[in-house]
Automatic annotation (TrEMBL), chain A:
Domain ABC transporter span(s) in chain numbering: 6-255
Chief subcellular location: membrane
Keyword Cell membrane: yes
UniProt-listed SUPFAM superfamilies: P-loop containing nucleoside triphosphate hydrolases
PROSITE patterns: ABC_TRANSPORTER_1, ABC_TRANSPORTER_2
GO function term, MF aspect, one: ATP binding
Membrane topology, record value: Peripheral membrane protein
Any single Gene Ontology cellular-component annotation: plasma membrane
Protein name per UniProt: ABC transporter ATP-binding protein
PANTHER family per the UniProt record, alphabetical: DIPEPTIDE TRANSPORT ATP-BINDING PROTEIN DPPD, OLIGOPEPTIDE TRANSPORT ATP-BINDING PROTEIN APPD
Membrane spanning stretches: none
Record lineage: Bacteria, Bacillati, Bacillota, Bacilli, Bacillales
InterPro entries named in the record: AAA+_ATPase, ABC_Ni/Peptide_Import, ABC_transporter-like_ATP-bd, ABC_transporter-like_CS, Oligopep_ABC_C, P-loop_NTPase
UniProtKB/TrEMBL annotation, chain B:
Keywords from the UniProt entry: ATP-binding, Nucleotide-binding, Transport
Residues covered by the ABC transporter domain: 4-253
PROSITE patterns: ABC_TRANSPORTER_1, ABC_TRANSPORTER_2
Gene3D superfamilies: P-loop containing nucleotide triphosphate hydrolases
Name of the protein described by the UniProt record: ABC transporter ATP-binding protein
Organism: Oceanobacillus bengalensis
Pfam family, one: oligo_HPY
UniProt-listed InterPro entries: AAA+_ATPase, ABC_transp_ATP-bind, ABC_transporter-like_ATP-bd, ABC_transporter-like_CS, Oligopep_ABC_C, P-loop_NTPase
Recorded superkingdom: Bacteria
PANTHER family membership: ABC TRANSPORTER, ATP-BINDING PROTEIN (PTHR43776:SF8), TRANSPORT ATP-BINDING PROTEIN (PTHR43776)
One GO MF term attached to the UniProt entry: ATP binding
Similarity annotation: Belongs to the ABC transporter superfamily.
Classification of source organism: Bacteria, Bacillati, Bacillota, Bacilli, Bacillales
GO aspect biological process, one term: peptide transport
From TrEMBL, chain D:
Residue stretches in coiled coil: none
Family: Belongs to the binding-protein-dependent transport system permease family.
Protein name: ABC transporter permease
Keyword tags: Cell membrane, Membrane, Transmembrane, Transmembrane helix, Transport
Keyword Cytoplasm set for record: no
Domain ABC transmembrane type-1: 96-288
Automatic annotation (TrEMBL), chain E:
GO CC entries: plasma membrane
Family: Belongs to the binding-protein-dependent transport system permease family.
Organism: Oceanobacillus bengalensis
Classification via PROSITE patterns: ABC_TM1
Domain ABC transmembrane type-1: 95-306
Location relative to the cell: Cell membrane
Protein name from the UniProt record: ABC transporter permease
CDD domains according to UniProt: TM_PBP2 (cd06261)
C-alpha cells in the first residue's frame, strides 16, 4: 500500500463573482503522506482556506474541478452520504477561529460527543461520555467532567481551541487539516497547541495539513512545506530545503521579511495580493510584485518544475531573482501603487 | 530626559451584578504600573492577550478613565482628564492596531489627515492642503492620493495614512497599539521600516505595544513584560532577551517559534525545560492570587517582579 | 327606540327612550302630507307610507319555536337589566322581553286599562290627583311570587333614595311627599299609599296632562328580592345582571354579557302562556345586519339602518319590512344667548351674531331638506316642518307653514334685511357692512354626518352666506356637547337631534330654565305657551292641542332652531314570524309565533 | 465565516461603508429588476400624484353633490362617486398624496428622533445608554394604538402635521434600537477612538464620523419604515379616528369598506385605494429589500 | 435566576408607575366626561353637576390620581360609569375573552411562522422561498382590518363556516363541552385573520435569522463532523435561529394588543379592545384607564417573559 494519503490533482476551486467564475484555487497538485505534516504558507487571500474547504467538501457554492484522491478514492464527486461518513471520521478539520467554531447553545461535551455519535451509533452513552472526558484530557483541559457541562462562552480562547481540536481528533482521523489553528492565540498557548498536534501525529500516524502564514510555526512543525500564492502552489519542498535554499522569489521575500536578529531593515514585498477578479491568469502571478525583474525572465504559463528531488518551483524567474538595493527600494516606495 | 512618566497607574473596570446593578468587583486591567520613557526611544510593552497593554496605552492618552496613579508628560501632570488640555493632547498621538477600522471609510484621505489640523490649527484651505500633501509625501504616498478613500489603499498603505494623521501635529510621543499585528508578514515589514524611519526623522518617542516578541525585539530599546495587569519584568532589549529573570518572561521567550528548522529539537527541549521550571517555581514568582510581585531592581536598567526578600 | 346606525342622534337620543320605548300612538304612521313622497314614488324612492306596522302572517304558527332577535348596535349592551336602573337603549330592548310596565298605553301614548294593572284617577279637593292602581291577581313574578303593590312603592323608594345613582329621579316629580323623602326627612313617601296587597294609590300635587301620557312610573321592583340589598349595591347585583327577574312573557335563562340573552317562555304570564318556546337575543353589528337577516340568523331586529334599505331590500326577500315614523327629528340650531348656571336660566343676547330672525329664516329657506332626505336616505327621511313630530298625530300641526326650500326667497330676505355683498367677493356682509362668517358645529359619527354638514355649508354659500365648519372638522360627540352645552362663543350654528319621548311637553327642551335649550332662546310668549301646555287646563286634549299649535307657529316665526329632517324606523321581520307588530301600543309578545323551526333564508 | 476568507482588501470594501457605497447601493438596486420596476412605478405614482394634485381643486373634490351620490364609474367620474356625491378619483389622488406625505413625514420625524436617540445612547454607552434604553423600553411597551387614539382625541388642531408628529412620537423606537446597537459596535472601532485622541468633539464624532458610516443602514431602515408608514393612518380611519373627510386619505377611502354595501356593491370607492396602498407599500418595500440586500454582501445577488 | 427576575421586576415597577401617570393625565386631557353624553331633559343640569361631584369628576387631577392608584393597589379599578359595575368585574369577563383570542392568535402565528420561516430560510432563493416571501410581502402590505373584513365576509357569511360575531353561542351552559367548543369556534376566524397577518413579521425574522445562522462557522464545524444536512439544520441551525424569536415574543404582545382592537371590533368579539373603543367614546375613563394600564402591563410582562425565556434557553446570558 502506498504511503500517499491524499492526492490533489489539478484541483481548481472557483467562486462566482458577478456572472463569472474565478478560481481561488487554481490547478493545485499536491500530495500528503501518512505520518507527515505538510505546511501550507502564504499571504492572506492566497487560497489556503479555499483549498482546505475543497478537500473537506465544505464549500456550498463553489465549482470544484480536478481530483481529490483520499486513500486512492476520488472524494471530489461522491454523494453527500458518503462524504458525511468520511468527514469527522477519517477526515477532520480544525478551524481558525475558536470563538465562532462552536455552537453557543450546546454543551461542550455534547458537541464532542456528536462526532462520536455520528460515526459510531453502537457506542453506549456511558462509553461515549468516558471517551469525551478522555479526549478533553488528551487536549489538556483541566477538570474535564466540569468542562463537559460548560458552554463555549464560559471558556477562554485557548480552551475553546482545544475543544475544537478534541472534536477533530475524536475519531482518530487519518487526515487532519488545521487551518491556522493558532493565529488567534498567544504564543504560549500556541506552543501548547502545536505540541498537541505534533503529539497526535506521532500517536496516530495521521497526515496533517497545517495551514498558516507564520513561518516560525511551519519551521517548527512541518515535514514538507507548500508555498501558495494567488491560488497556486509556487514552491514545494521539505522544510530544510525550503528554509535553507528557497527558490521562488515569493518564498524568498517571505522569509526575508521576518524580523531576525541583527537585521536593520526588513525586506518589503511591494504591492498586495490582488483580489480574485484581478488575478493575472497568465504568466507568473508574482511578477507584478517584483517589477525589477525583467518581464522576459518570467515563463508564459509556468508550471511546477522539480529542481531537485522533492523540490518543486513554479516559474523560472527565480534564476534571475535578487533583492533590490535600499535606495532603489525607497524610490519604488514613492511610486508604489497608491 | 523622560518624556513620559507613569507612576502607579491603575485602571479598574467595574464588574456589575446584583439587583441594583451595583459594582461588586473590579477587573484590575492595569494594576500599579510605573515606568518612564526617554525621549527619542522606543519602549515596548509585551504580554499575553488581556494582560492590560492596550488599557495602559489608552489610559495614558485619555481614552480610559484612570482609577489611580499619576501620569507626567513632559513634566506636566496629565492624570486628570480635564488636565489633558488641548496643548498637551496634541503632543501625544496614537496609532491603532487595525488599519481597516481606524480610518473612517466615509472620509477622503485629505479629510482624515486634516482632522487633527482642523481641531488644533486654523489654517487656510490652501495651507491645509499643502500640509496634508507634505505629510503624505513623508509617509511615502503620492500627494495625489488626497482625494482617494481608504478602501482604495492596501493595508500597509492605510497604516501609513494612520501614521500620517498621528504625526500631523508633530507630536512628541506616539502610542502604537499593535500597529502591525493585523498585517501579513510582508506588509508588516513595510510598516515597521517606515516607523523607524520616521522616528529618526522627527525625533519621535514610541510606546510600542505588541504581543509579538520578535517584533518588539526588532523595534524597541526598552521592553516591559506585562502579566495580568502588572509588570513582571522590565529592562533593555538585551536584559530581556539575553538575561530573562522572571519565569514568566522565560516562558514567553521560549515559546517564540524558531524560524530555523534545524533548531527544532533544541527549541523543544528548551521549551520543555522552561515549562518544567515554570511549573516547579510558580509559587516563587507569583503570589497566592497568581499575580506578580512588586518590581525589584537587579541592575540599573533591569527590574524584575520578585517577592520582597526579608 | 332610535336606530343605532344613525348619526348625530346617537348621543342625545340614546338617553331618551326610557320613557319612549314602550308604545305610542300610531294609527297609520305619518298620514300627513309630505309632498316629497308623491314625487318620490316616481323616482323609485321609498316612502314611509309604503310600510305596514303589523306583520302579515304567512302561514300557521307551529307549536313552540324560538325567535331570534337581533339587537343592532356596534357596541355591546351594558347588561343593567332592570327598569329602575338601566341606562342604555339596548338594555331596554332586552328588558321588554321579560319585564313590563304595569300600565299599558295606546298609540297616543295614553294609559289604557289593558295592562297588568288597572287605574283610576281621582281628583282631590286640595287640587291634587290620586291614581289608584290595582294590579291584576294573576300577575306574578317569574319566581311565582305575586307582583304586589309594595313592589311598586319599593321602586319609588329606591329611586328616591340618596344612594340611588340612576337617571329615574323624574319618576318622583310631583309625587306628594317625595321631596321630604329625598331630603331624608321622611322614611316613606306620604303620597304613596298601599291600600292592599294589590292596590296602591299615588298622589300628585298637581294634575298634569303628562301624567296621563305615560307620565306615571309603573315599573315595580321586586321587593322580596331587592329588599335586602342596599340601594347602592343593587345596580351591581346578580339580581340585575345575571338572574334578572320580571313578570313579562319570557324569562331570562342565560346571559352572555354584552353579547346575547336567551329567554324561555313564562308559562305563568298573566296574558297567557307565550306561543314560542323562547327567544334568543343577540347583538348584531349594523355592518352585518343584512347578512344576519339574509341567512336567517336573526328573525327580527330592533331597528334596521335605513341607509342600507334600498341597496338590500331585493336581496332580503325572506323578510317583511315594517316601518313607521320615528319619535325623533334632526334640527339646526342658532346660538342666541347663554345659559346662566347660577340663575338656572337662559339669557338671550339681543346682540348675538345670529340674533336677526331674517338671517335665520333665510338660512332655512336656503336648504333643500327634501332632497337631502331623498338622496341620502332614499326618502326614508324627509323635510321637517315643526318641532312636534308627526308621531304625535294629535299635536303635530301639518298646516303650519314652515319656510321651504327657496333660495330666491332666501336671497330676497337677506337683501331686504341688509345682508348684502358690499365688497364684491360674493359673500354677503352683515347690515353694518362687516364681514359675516358663521361657525357651524356638527357631530361626527355615522356615515352621512360629514357630507350632510358640507351640504348645508354649500347651500348657504349659494345664497351668499359664509358658513364654515368649526375647526374645519366634525366634532366627536364629547367635544361637540362640550362646545354646545357650555355656549362656547365660537359656535354660531349647530346641528343636533332630539328624541322626542312620548310626551309633547316641550319645557325640557325649549323652556326658559331648560339647560338643554341650547339655542338659549327665550320669549314671554314661549314661556306662556309652554307653561299653559303643561297646566291642569291642558288635561283637556283639545285645549292642549291649540296651545301646541300656537307654539309650533311661534317656533316657525322665531326660528331659534329649525327642524331639518323627520325620520322613520324600519323593522325587518322574517317571513316565518307571525303576529308581530311595531305599533307603539303593541304588547302581545306572547302571541308571536313562527311557522317553521328554522328561519327562512333569502334566495 | 466566508467573510473571513475574503481577501482583506476585498473585505474592507464593505459596500455599505465605503464612500462610493451609495453608488454601489444604487447600482445593486438598478440591477434588481423587481426593485427597479418598483422604483420606476413609485416615481411615476409620486410624480403623478403630487403633480396632478396641484392642478386638482381640493375644495371642488370634497364638495358634496346631492344629486350624484354613489355614481358608478363613468365619463364624468372616472372612479365614480362616494356617498356624498364626491369624485372618488380626485379623492384618490389627493388621498394618495396625503397618505404619502404622512408616511414620509412620520418616517422622517421618527427617523430623526430615533437616529439621534440611538446614536447618542450607543455612542456614550454606559449609564447614559442604560438610562436612555429604559426610556426606550418604556415607549416600546406603551399600547401604541390606544395612546394614539387618546392623543388624537386630545389635539384640537388635527392636521396632517399634528398627526404625523403624534405617530412619530410613538414609532421611533425601532430605528433607535437598531441605530443604537450599530452605534455601540461602531464606537468601538478605532476610527472613533482615533478621532477622540485627535481632539474632535463628541458631537462632531457622532454626527460627522459615526452617522455617515451607518448611513446605508439608515437609508434601508427608513425605506422599510416608509413602506410600513404609508398605510399607517388607514387603521385609525377605520376605527373612526382618522382625518375629516375634507382631508381625503387612502385610509378614509378604505374605511368606507366597513359599510357592507360599499364593500359589496360599490367597489370603486375602496378597491382602488386598497390596491394603491398595496402597490405603494410593496413597491417601497421592494426597493428597501433590494437596498438591504445590497448592503449585506452575503445576500447580494452577484 | 430568581434574582434576575426580581431585578427585571424592579425595573418594570417605575415603568408601570410612569405608564399609569401618563394614562391618567391623558384621560384628563380629553374633552368631555362620562356625563357629557347624558343629554336627557329628564336629568337636569343640577343633577348632572351633583353626580359629577359625587363621582369625584370635579376633583383636581392629583387627588383623583391618588384615589385611583389607591384603588388599584387594592385591586379596585373604580366603577364603570357606563356599566354601573366595578371595572374589575367588568374586566374579568373581557380579559378572559381577549386572553383566549390572543393565545389562539399567538398559537396560530407560531404554528404558521415556524414552518414557513424554516422552509423559507433553509431553501432560500428557491421558488418555495420566493412564494413564502411573496406571502409575507402581501401580508405586510394588507391592512389587518380589510383582511379581517374580507375573511368575515367570505368565511362567515358567504360560506357560513364560522360564526360571525360574539364569543359564544347564546344559551349554552358555561363549562359544558358544547360551550367550550362554541367558544373555540367563535375564536377561530378572528384569531386566524389576525394570525395570518401577524405571522409575516415572524416569518421574515425567522427566515433572516436562519439565513444568517447558516453562515456561522459552527455550522461548518458540524458539517465537518459528518453531520447530514438535516441534522445540521435540526440540531444546530434551528435552535440558534429560534432563540431571537423568543426575544421577539415581547413585541409580539404589543402587536397583538393593537390587533385585537381591530379584530374585536370587526368580529363583534367582546374583549378588551372593543371595550376600550366604546369606553373612550363614552368617556368611561375608569374603564379606559384600566384597559390601557392592563395592556401596558401585559406588554411589560411580555417583555419580561421573553427576557426570562431568553435567559433560560440562552446559556450565554443564563443566570446561574
Ligand atoms: N465564498 C467565496 N466567494 C467568493 N470568493 C471567495 C470565497 N471564499 C474565498 N474567496 C476568495 O478566494 C481567495 C482565497 O481565499 P482564502 O480564504 O482561501 O485565503 P486564505 O489564504 O485562507 O487567507 P487567510 O489567510 O486570510 O485565511 C480570496 O481572494 C477570497 O476573496
Ligand atoms: N471597557 C472594558 N470594560 C471591562 N473590562 C475591560 C474593558 N477593556 C478591557 N477590559 C479588560 O481588561 C483586561 C485588559 O485588557 P487589554 O485590552 O488592556 O489587554 P491587552 O493586553 O491589550 O490584550 P490584547 O492582546 O488582547 O489586546 C482584560 O481582562 C479585558 O477583559
Ligand atoms: Mg484562511
Ligand atoms: Mg490590546
Amino acid at each position: 500500500m502506498s504511503n500517499k494519503l491524499l492526492e490533489l490533482k489539478n484541483l481548481k476551486t472557483s467562486f462566482q463573482i458577478g456572472d463569472e467564475y474565478y478560481a481561488a484555487v487554481d490547478d493545485v497538485t499536491l500530495t500528503v503522506n501518512k505520518n507527515e505534516v505538510l505546511g501550507i504558507v502564504g499571504e492572506s487571500g492566497s487560497g489556503k482556506s479555499a483549498l482546505a474547504f475543497s478537500v473537506m467538501g465544505l464549500h456550498t457554492r463553489a465549482k470544484i474541478e480536478g481530483n481529490i484522491l483520499f486513500n486512492g478514492k476520488d472524494i471530489a464527486n461522491i454523494t453527500p452520504q458518503e462524504l458525511n461518513r468520511l468527514r469527522g471520521d477519517e477526515l477532520a478539520m480544525i478551524f481558525q477561529d475558536p470563538l465562532t467554531a462552536l455552537n453557543p447553545l450546546m454543551e461542550i461535551g455534547d458537541q464532542i460527543a456528536e462526532t462520536l455519535i455520528l460515526h459510531n451509533q453502537n457506542m453506549s452513552q456511558k462509553a461515549r461520555k468516558e471517551r469525551v472526558i478522555e479526549l478533553l484530557n488528551m487536549v489538556g483541559i483541566p477538570r474535564p467532567e466540569y468542562v463537559y457541562e460548560q458552554f463555549p462562552h464560559e471558556l477562554s480562547g485557548g480552551m475553546r481551541q482545544r475543544v475544537v481540536i478534541a472534536i477533530a481528533i475524536a475519531n482518530q482521523p487519518e487526515l487532519l487539516i488545521a487551518d491556522e489553528p493558532t493565529t488567534a492565540l498567544d504564543v504560549t498557548i500556541q506552543a501548547q497547541i502545536l505540541d498537541l498536534i505534533r503529539k497526535l501525529k506521532n500517536d496516530m500516524h495521521s497526515g496533517v495539513i497545517l495551514i498558516t502564514h507564520d513561518l516560525g510555526v511551519v519551521a517548527e512543525m512541518a515535514d514538507r512545506i507548500a508555498v501558495m500564492y494567488a491560488g497556486q502552489i509556487v514552491e514545494v519542498a521539505d522544510v530544510h530545503t525550503l528554509f535553507e535554499n528557497p527558490k521562488h522569489p515569493y518564498t524568498r521575500s517571505l522569509l526575508n521579511s521576518v524580523p531576525a536578529d541583527g537585521q536593520d531593515k526588513l525586506h518589503v514585498i511591494q504591492g498586495i495580493v490582488p483580489a480574485l477578479q484581478n488575478l493575472p491568469r497568465e504568466g507568473c502571478r508574482f511578477s507584478e510584485r517584483i517589477p525589477w525583474i525583467d518581464a522576459t525572465h518570467h515563463e508564459v504559463n509556468p508550471v511546477l518544475h522539480e529542481v531537485t528531488p522533492g523540490h518543486f518551483v513554479r516559474c523560472t524567474c527565480h534564476k534571475h531573482f535578487y533583492f533590490p538595493d535600499k535606495t532603489k527600494e525607497a524610490e519604488l516606495h514613492g511610486n508604489s501603487r497608491s | 530626559m523622560a518624556i513620559l512618566e507613569v507612576e502607579d497607574l491603575k485602571v479598574y473596570f467595574p464588574i456589575k451584578a446584583g439587583i441594583f446593578n451595583r459594582t461588586v468587583d473590579h477587573i484590575k486591567a492595569v494594576d500599579s504600573v510605573s515606568f518612564s520613557i526617554e525621549e527619542g526611544k522606543t519602549y515596548g510593552l509585551v504580554g499575553e492577550s488581556g494582560s492590560g497593554k492596550t488599557t495602559t496605552g489608552r489610559g495614558i492618552i485619555g481614552l480610559e478613565n484612570i482609577t489611580a496613579g499619576k501620569i507626567l508628560f513632559d513634566g506636566v501632570d496629565i492624570t486628570d482628564k480635564k488636565s489633558k488640555t488641548k496643548d498637551i493632547r496634541r503632543d501625544m498621538q496614537m496609532i491603532f492596531q487595525d488599519p481597516y477600522s481606524s480610518l473612517n471609510p466615509r472620509k477622503r484621505v485629505f479629510d482624515i489627515i486634516a482632522e487633527p489640523l482642523r481641531n488644533y490649527e486654523s489654517l487656510s484651505k490652501l495651507e491645509e492642503k499643502k500640509q496634508v500633501q507634505e505629510l503624505l509625501q513623508l509617509v511615502g504616498l503620492s500627494p495625489e492620493s488626497i482625494l482617494k478613500y481608504p478602501h482604495e489603499f492596501s493595508g500597509g498603505q492605510r497604516q501609513r495614512i494612520g501614521i500620517a494623521r498621528a504625526i500631523a501635529l508633530k507630536p512628541k510621543l506616539i502610542i502604537a497599539d499593535e500597529p502591525v499585528s493585523a498585517l501579513d508578514v510582508s506588509v508588516q515589514a513595510q510598516v515597521l521600516n517606515f516607523m523607524q524611519d520616521i522616528q529618526k526623522e522627527l525625533g519621535l518617542t514610541y510606546l510600542f505595544i505588541s504581543h509579538d516578541l520578535g517584533i518588539v525585539k526588532h523595534m524597541c530599546d526598552d521592553i516591559a513584560i506585562m502579566y495580568k495587569g502588572r509588570y513582571v519584568e522590565q529592562g533593555t532589549k538585551h536584559d530581556i532577551f539575553n538575561n530573562p529573570q522572571h519565569i514568566y518572561t522565560k516562558r514567553l521567550v521560549s515559546a517564540i517559534p524558531d524560524i530555523n528548522p534545524r533548531n527544532r529539537e533544541k527549541q523543544f527541549r528548551f521549551r520543555r525545560d522552561v515549562q518544567k521550571e515554570y511549573d516547579e517555581s510558580y509559587d516563587d514568582y507569583f503570589d497566592d492570587k497568581g499575580l506578580a510581585y512588586g518590581l525589584q531592581p537587579i541592575s540599573d536598567t533591569h527590574l524584575v517582579a520578585l517577592p520582597e526578600r526579608g | 327606540a332610535c336606530s343605532g346606525g344613525d348619526e348625530e342622534a346617537d348621543g342625545n337620543e340614546s338617553e331618551e327612550p326610557d320613557t319612549t320605548e314602550e308604545e305610542g300612538n300610531e294609527e297609520e304612521p305619518a298620514e300627513e302630507e309630505e309632498p316629497a313622497e308623491e314625487e318620490a314614488a316616481d323616482d323609485g324612492l321609498v316612502s314611509i307610507d309604503d310600510f305596514g306596522v303589523d306583520k302579515t302572517n304567512a302561514g300557521e304558527a307551529i307549536d313552540g319555536g324560538t325567535l331570534n332577535f337581533g339587537l343592532v348596535t356596534d357596541t355591546v349592551f351594558e347588561g343593567i337589566l332592570n327598569w329602575t336602573f338601566y341606562e342604555g337603549a339596548p338594555d331596554a330592548e332586552i328588558l321588554q322581553f321579560f319585564d313590563e310596565s304595569l300600565l299599558a298605553i295606546d298609540n297616543n301614548f295614553n294609559f289604557t286599562q289593558d295592562g297588568a294593572a288597572t287605574w283610576e284617577m281621582v281628583e282631590n279637593e286640595d287640587g291634587s290627583v290620586t291614581f289608584e292602581i290595582t294590579i291584576r291577581d294573576n300577575v306574578n313574578w317569574h319566581d311565582g311570587e305575586p307582583v304586589k303593590a309594595e313592589d311598586l312603592e319599593f321602586s319609588y323608594l329606591v329611586i328616591g333614595d340618596p344612594a340611588y345613582e340612576g337617571m329615574r329621579r323624574y319618576a318622583l316629580d310631583g309625587v306628594v311627599g317625595a321631596e321630604e323623602y329625598m331630603a331624608g326627612e321622611a322614611d316613606s313617601i306620604s303620597g304613596i299609599e298601599i291600600v292592599s296587597d294589590k292596590q296602591i294609590n299615588i298622589t300628585y300635587a298637581e294634575p298634569n296632562p303628562s301624567l296621563l301620557a305615560s307620565g306615571i312610573w309603573a315599573y315595580p321592583l321586586a321587593k322580596h328580592i331587592f329588599g335586602d340589598i342596599p340601594v347602592a349595591e343593587m345596580v351591581e347585583s346578580d339580581e340585575v345582571r345575571v338572574n334578572p327577574i320580571g313578570f313579562g312573557p319570557f324569562k331570562v335563562e342565560s346571559i352572555v354579557p354584552g353579547e346575547s340573552v336567551s329567554y324561555t317562555a313564562n308559562e305563568d304570564y298573566w296574558q297567557g302562556a307565550p306561543k314560542l318556546d323562547g327567544v334568543t337575543l343577540k347583538v348584531v353589528a349594523p355592518t352585518t345586519v343584512v347578512q344576519a337577516l339574509e341567512t336567517g340568523e336573526v328573525d327580527v331586529v330592533d331597528t334596521f339602518p335605513t341607509d342600507q334599505y334600498v341597496d338590500t331590500v331585493d336581496q332580503l326577500n325572506n323578510v317583511e319590512f315594517l316601518g313607521q315614523t320615528d319619535l325623533a327629528y334632526t334640527y339646526i340650531g342658532f346660538k342666541l344667548g347663554t345659559f346662566d348656571k347660577e340663575a338656572g336660566e337662559n339669557i338671550t343676547d339681543p346682540d348675538a351674531k345670529m340674533a336677526d330672525v331674517n338671517l335665520r329664516r333665510a338660512m332655512w329657506h336656503a336648504v333643500d331638506n327634501d332632497s337631502v332626505g331623498q338622496q341620502f336616505y332614499d326618502g326614508l327621511r324627509w323635510a321637517g316642518t315643526t318641532l312636534i313630530v308627526p308621531s304625535f298625530p294629535d299635536y303635530h300641526d301639518p298646516s303650519v307653514e314652515a319656510p321651504s326650500y327657496d333660495p330666491e326667497m332666501a336671497k330676497k330676505i337677506l337683501d331686504e334685511a341688509g345682508y348684502v355683498d358690499v365688497n364684491g367677493d360674493g359673500i354677503r356682509e352683515n347690515p353694518e357692512g362687516e364681514e359675516l362668517v358663521m361657525n357651524f358645529a356638527s357631530m361626527s359619527g355615522g356615515d352621512t354626518a360629514e357630507p350632510l354638514a358640507q351640504y348645508y355649508i354649500q347651500a348657504w354659500e349659494q345664497v351668499g352666506l359664509k358658513v364654515q365648519l368649526l375647526d374645519g372638522r366634525l366634532h366627536e360627540m364629547n367635544s361637540f356637547y362640550d362646545l354646545v352645552e357650555n355656549d362656547d362663543p365660537s359656535v354660531d350654528i349647530y346641528q343636533g337631534a332630539w328624541g322626542t319621548g312620548s310626551d309633547v311637553d316641550q319645557r325640557g327642551l325649549y323652556g326658559r330654565t331648560a339647560a338643554y335649550n341650547y339655542s338659549r332662546y327665550t320669549s314671554e310668549e314661549n314661556d306662556r305657551l309652554l307653561t299653559e301646555g303643561a297646566s291642569a287646563a291642558s288635561m283637556d286634549v283639545e285645549y292642549r292641542k291649540d296651545i301646541y299649535k300656537e307654539w309650533q307657529e311661534l317656533m316657525v316665526q322665531d326660528i331659534p332652531v329649525f327642524p331639518t329632517l323627520y325620520r322613520s324606523v324600519l323593522v325587518p321581520v322574517n317571513e316565518r314570524v307571525t303576529d308581530y307588530s311595531i305599533q307603539w301600543s303593541w304588547d302581545d309578545l306572547h302571541e308571536v309565533g313562527v311557522t317553521s323551526e328554522e328561519a327562512i333564508v333569502a334566495e | 465565516m466566508e467573510a473571513n476568507n475574503v481577501n482583506i482588501v476585498e473585505q474592507t470594501q464593505d459596500p455599505s461603508k465605503s464612500p462610493s457605497g451609495l453608488r454601489i447601493l444604487w447600482r445593486e438596486l438598478v440591477r434588481d429588476k423587481l426593485a427597479l420596476f418598483s422604483l420606476i412605478l413609485l416615481t411615476l405614482i409620486v410624480v403623478f400624484v403630487y403633480g396632478v394634485s396641484i392642478i386638482l381643486d381640493q375644495d371642488e373634490i370634497v364638495t358634496v353633490d346631492l344629486f350624484a351620490i354613489h355614481e358608478a364609474p363613468s365619463e364624468d367620474f372616472i372612479l365614480g362617486t362616494d356617498y356624498g356625491g364626491r369624485d372618488v378619483f380626485g379623492q384618490l389622488i389627493i388621498g394618495t398624496r396625503n397618505s404619502l406625505t404622512i408616511g414620509i413625514a412620520v418616517t422622517l420625524i421618527s427617523g430623526i428622533i430615533g437616529i439621534a436617540f440611538g446614536l447618542v445612547a450607543g455612542y456614550f454607552g454606559g449609564h447614559t445608554d442604560n438610562t436612555m434604553m429604559r426610556v426606550l423600553d418604556f415607549f416600546q411597551i406603551l399600547p401604541f394604538t390606544m395612546l394614539v387614539i387618546v392623543f388624537v382625541s386630545i389635539v384640537p388642531d388635527y392636521t396632517i402635521l399634528a398627526f404625523s408628529l403624534i405617530m412619530a412620537v410613538f414609532s421611533w423606537m425601532g430605528i433607535a434600537r437598531l441605530i443604537r446597537s450599530k452605534a455601540l459596535q461602531e464606537k468601538e472601532l478605532d476610527y472613533v477612538q482615533a478621532s477622540k485622541t485627535l481632539g474632535t468633539s463628541n458631537t462632531k464624532i457622532i454626527f460627522r464620523e459615526v452617522m455617515p458610516n451607518i448611513s446605508s443602514l439608515i437609508i434601508v431602515t427608513m425605506t422599510l419604515n416608509l413602506a410600513a408608514n404609508i398605510g399607517i393612518e388607514s387603521g385609525l380611519s377605520f376605527l373612526g379616528f382618522g382625518f375629516p373627510e375634507s382631508t381625503p386619505s387612502l385610509g378614509t377611502l378604505l374605511s368606507y369598506a366597513t359599510n357592507p354595501q360599499t364593500l359589496e356593491f360599490r367597489w370603486w370607492i375602496w378597491v382602488p385605494a386598497a390596491v394603491l396602498i398595496l402597490v405603494l407599500m410593496l413597491a417601497v418595500r421592494n426597493v428597501g429589500e433590494a437596498l438591504r440586500r445590497a448592503t449585506d454582501s452575503r445576500q447580494r445577488r452577484g | 435566576m430568581w434574582k434576575f427576575i426580581v431585578r427585571r421586576l424592579l425595573i418594570t415597577f417605575p415603568q408601570i408607575i410612569l405608564l399609569s401617570v401618563l394614562i391618567f393625565l391623558m384621560a384628563q386631557a380629553m374633552p368631555g366626561d362620562a356625563l357629557t353624553g347624558v343629554i336627557d331633559p329628564n336629568v337636569s343640569l343640577e343633577e348632572k353637576e351633583e353626580l359629577r361631584e359625587r363621582l369625584g369628576l370635579n376633583a383636581p387631577w392629583h387627588e383623583k390620581y391618588a384615589d385611583w392608584v389607591g384603588g388599584i393597589v387594592q385591586g379596585d379599578f373604580g366603577q364603570s360609569f357606563r356599566f354601573k359595575m366595578p371595572v374589575t368585574e367588568l374586566l374579568e369577563q373581557r380579559l378572559m375573552n381577549s386572553f383566549w383570542l390572543s393565545l389562539m392568535t399567538l398559537l396560530f402565528t407560531y404554528l404558521m411562522a415556524i414552518p414557513l420561516g424554516i422552509i423559507s430560510g433553509r431553501y432560500n432563493d428557491t421558488l418555495l422561498d420566493s412564494s413564502i416571501t411573496g406571502y409575507t410581502y402581501l401580508g405586510f402590505a394588507t391592512p389587518l382590518f380589510i383582511f379581517a373584513l374580507v375573511m368575515l365576509w367570505v368565511f362567515g357569511y358567504q360560506l357560513g363556516w364560522f360564526p360571525t360575531s360574539g364569543s359564544v353561542t347564546p344559551g349554552l351552559e358555561p363549562g359544558s363541552m358544547e360551550y367550550v367548543i362554541s367558544k373555540f369556534n367563535h375564536l377561530l376566524l378572528p384569531a386566524l385573520s389576525m394570525a395570518l397577518i401577524q405571522t409575516v413579521s415572524t416569518v421574515q425574522y425567522l427566515r433572516s435569522e436562519i439565513v444568517d445562522t447558516k453562515q456561522k462557522e459552527f455550522v461548518i464545524t458540524a458539517r465537518a463532523k459528518g453531520a447530514s444536512e438535516s441534522r445540521v439544520y435540526n440540531k444546530h441551525i434551528f435552535r440558534n435561529s429560534l432563540l431571537p424569536i423568543a426575544a421577539f415574543f415581547g413585541y409580539e404582545i404589543s402587536f397583538l394588543i393593537s390587533g385585537t382592537i381591530f379584530v374585536e371590533k370587526i368580529f363583534g368579539y367582546p374583549g378588551m379592545g372593543l371595550l376600550f373603543l366604546e369606553s373612550i367614546l363614552l368617556r368611561d375613563y375608569s374603564v379606559v384607564n384600566a384597559v390601557v394600564l392592563i395592556f401596558g402591563v401585559a406588554a411589560i410582562l411580555g417583555a419580561l417573559l421573553s427576557d426570562i425565556i431568553l435567559s433560560i434557553v440562552d446559556p450565554r446570558i443564563r443566570i446561574k
